[in-house]
């Protein structure tokens, strides 16, 4: 591989990394803690365990500033929310 091609590839990777970093920051800036209650109310609307669901959803939302869309699943949309685990290794966020 030529030096100019390596340099171009490196610049492309760096640009992509910066784009992802700044787009994540922009997404966090759009979502405020005040958005958590209505999002969690909808997220927990289909469960019969509303109180614990709301408790953990609000806790996760405050930390991650994100709540997955829908009443179940879709956690890949919010990596922080998806990856936060209990001590036992299970999912912390509903």
TrEMBL record:
Domain of life: Eukaryota
InterPro entries: GASA
Keyword set, alphabetical order: Signal
Record's signal peptide: 1-28
Family per record: Belongs to the GASA family.
Protein name, as recorded: Protein RSI-1
């Amino acid at each position: 591989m030529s030096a100019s091609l390596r340099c171009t590839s490196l610049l492309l990777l760096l640009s992509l990394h910066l784009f992802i970093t700044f787009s994540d920051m922009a997404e966090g800036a759009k979502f405020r803690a005040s958005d958590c209650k209505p999002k969690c109310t909808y997220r927990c609307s289909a469960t019969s365990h509303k109180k614990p669901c709301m408790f953990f959803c609000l806790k996760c939302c405050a930390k991650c500033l994100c709540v997955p869309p829908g009443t179940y699943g879709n956690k890949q949309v919010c990596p922080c929310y998806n990856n936060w685990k209990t001590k036992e290794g299970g999912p912390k966020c509903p």
